[in-house]
Design brief:
29% of the residues lie in helices and 28% in strands. With 285 residues, the chain is of the alpha/beta class. It folds into 2 domains: 201 residues, 3-Layer(aba) Sandwich (Rossmann fold); 75 residues, no CATH class. It has a 6-stranded mixed beta sheet with strand order 5-6-7-3-8-9, sandwiched between helices. α4 runs antiparallel to α5 and α5 packs parallel to α6. It is globular and about 60 Å long.
Length: 285
């Protein structure tokens, strides 16, 4: 679905944001794009959406090059930025104007998603809503478009705790085997039990790109018992129940993926992460 080859991009010639990036992401999955603030997550999404132009390399979405801005591509791609302009329209008016650009848009599904978010009055003006409520309306709209590609930049920013739970529930209901969803966030706990694969962006390039099953097959997440082999622990931190560790899973012990621990482990021991998850640009996740 998403095929990025040797991608280079910089806002200044002597300051590259992304350098020689190779990334392949497939359909039917929700991909979590993680990284520190300012590392280039939004830039990468804009390049995938065709809103920024590469300095080198290529971005392909199926048979399309995003920067060509072909109608068939634009009508099958939805990008929700973290910040969006003020919309001085009622919800129903906004939908009437914009839904025509998406052939697969479902008004019935839109109302269903709004109900999930506990929004029942579509006569409200968007600019009179809170930031979080406006974001929920736009998420509902994007899901109702049923695009093959959906890009969400920090979608849970501005959402309260119940709304974040609603967001996860709605996403799981809406995504199917024909869609590719990329969610960029630095709030890693918001993605628990939602994403199928993780991409960690660090130092101008991809540090990790692996599906959840592969990660838990190679790494164990849980409480340490002091019996860990020397050099197997990539990261540890003190918790209420004891010392939490991320270690090499030599005995293929089952554990639940902890995204926050994984992220900290990746940034703490980059070399081991690269050894355990070697890059292969021909691998599609």
């Amino acid at each position: 679905m998403i095929e990025i080859e040797n991608l280079n991009f910089g806002y200044r010639k002597n300051r590259m944001v992304l350098q020689d990036v190779n990334l392949h992401l497939g359909k039917g999955l929700i991909h979590g794009l993680l990284g520190k603030n300012g590392v280039g997550k939004t830039t990468l999404l804009r390049l995938i959406a065709g809103l920024s132009f590469p300095d080198g390399g290529s971005v392909r979405i199926g048979r399309f090059t995003p920067t060509d801005r072909k109608v068939d591509f634009l009508s099958d791609m939805f990008f929700l930025p973290e910040e969006f302009p003020e919309i001085r329209l009622r919800i129903d008016r906004y939908v009437k104007i914009n839904s025509v650009f998406y052939p697969s848009f479902s008004h019935e599904d839109f109302r269903t998603y709004l109900n999930e978010f506990e929004i029942d009055d579509i006569k409200q003006r968007m600019d009179k809503l809170s930031y979080g409520t406006r974001k929920k309306v736009l998420i509902a709209f994007g899901l109702a478009c049923h695009c093959s590609l959906m890009l969400l930049d920090e979608p849970t920013n501005g959402l309260d705790i119940p709304s974040k739970t609603q967001f996860r529930r709605v996403m799981l209901k809406a995504v199917d085997e024909n869609s590719c969803v990329v969610i960029s966030t630095h709030q890693v706990r918001d993605l628990h039990n939602l994403i199928d694969s993780i991409v960690i962006l660090d130092h101008n390039n991809i540090l990790l790109n692996a599906d959840s099953r592969t990660i838990t097959d190679r790494l164990y997440f849980g409480l340490g018992d002091g019996s860990e082999q020397e050099g197997d622990v990539l990261y540890s931190e003190q918790g209420l129940e004891g010392q939490y560790v991320v270690r090499v899973n030599r005995d293929h012990q089952e554990s639940n993926l902890d995204i926050e621990l994984l992220f900290n482990a990746a940034l703490t021991d980059r070399q081991r992460i690269m050894e355990l998850f070697p890059k292969d640009k021909n691998t599609v996740i």
